[in-house]
Amino acid sequence: MRVLVVGQGGREHVLAWKIAQSPKVEQVYCAPGNAGTAADVQNVDIAADNVRELIAFATSEKFDLTVIGPEVPLVAGLSDALVDAGLRVFGPSKAAAELEGSKAFAKQVMRQAGVPTADFKVFTEAREAFTYLEEREDEPIVVKADGLAAGKGVMVCSGRDEALAAVREIAVDRAFGDAGGRIVIEEKLVGQEASILAIIDGKSILPLETAQDHKPAYDDDEGPNTGGMGAYSPAPIVTPEMMERIYSKILIPTVHEMKRLKRPFKGVLYAGLILTSQGPKVLEYNVRFGDPEAQPVLSRLKTDLIDVLVAAADGKLHNLPDLTWDSRPAVCVVMASEGYPGKYEKGHPIRGLAEADAMKDVKVFHAGTKIRGDTVVNDGGRVLGVTALGDDITSAKLQAYSAVKKIRWQGAWCRKDISDKARA
Length: 424
Prior knowledge:
Elements: E1 2-7, H1 10-20, E2 27-32, H2 35-40, E3 42-43, H3 51-61, E4 65-68, H4 71-76, H5 78-84, E5 89-90, H6 94-101, H7 103-113, E6 120-123, H8 126-135, E7 141-145, E8 154-157, H9 160-172, E9 183-187, E10 192-201, E11 205-207, E12 212-213, E13 216-218, E14 222-225, E15 230-233, H10 240-260, E16 266-276, E17 279-286, H11 294-300, H12 305-313, E18 330-336, H13 353-357, E19 362-366, E20 369-372, E21 375-378, E22 382-389, H14 393-404
């Protein structure tokens, strides 16, 4: 088989790396890829949102499967265009991808399906949101940009003043551009987060192993929200009993509701959950593998990933045997550029990558990197996802951070507490 992976982040690196391990796969291309994918597969200089060029390339190369990594091309309809061109694709349609493309739409789906989530209201006018907040009690609240904002359009506010400032930033100043055309204001849920990834073929649901992300920038969950500063798998807080509840009360109703809306979901459904005292509630849906959750989860997958992706694309998940997993936990630590999630500088040479990658049970997944001459440089906010397996969560964390210590570039930093919640 010949496979095209679309995207350039850490998620796409782990997908390309894992797919390339399959004995059934002859060649893997990544468009546009990064410095890490260039070492493991073949990069193609086509942007992930350039639908026209991607269709032309995929058609001319007659790929057996195209795997779409990021949310932007999915929301733009790349999956539909590939299907229309007669190609097999892993990734939801534009209509189904609205689950991530619009937080308001996702909340309405949850409400209709009876899926537990935070109480919410949707606003198209900033002044209406201001009035609503002024009339509410002064309590913690969450303000969200409705559209795609690269994981940064969510503001957790301690009270009214912060919430008013968040509305102003999103809906008036348009800090996230058109994503702020509508805003969602919802109650703040209290509890630990968990990430549930499930492969879906329109009807059948195949949950993957659990994970826990770390969204706030700094240790002890302090600081602004990011795209994710690290993750580990499995998440012990998600017990088998809780997983059954998530499957029956969240995943099944959502898939049924999307089918009822004539938007059948095929691809990866990512449920970001808060485990509250009343049980698991959905924070948000994404329509692709989480980044950085994909790195530790897929590092533990022993089943041939290509079999899973093809079965989902063909609507035949029910024919797939049970997945097999490495019983060892995995920890992924994100190394970021100085200033992230705000402004940061690019182009600093990265040292120590080969030394880190040579360590036992370690894989350095690239996210924001590129090759300049013969040097790998930082080219994004989240730069690397240093991932390690270990006999237990403590040894996996130790191995991951030992690898982190070997890597240096000007301004590099990371959280120091990734996976500590698993041992709390």
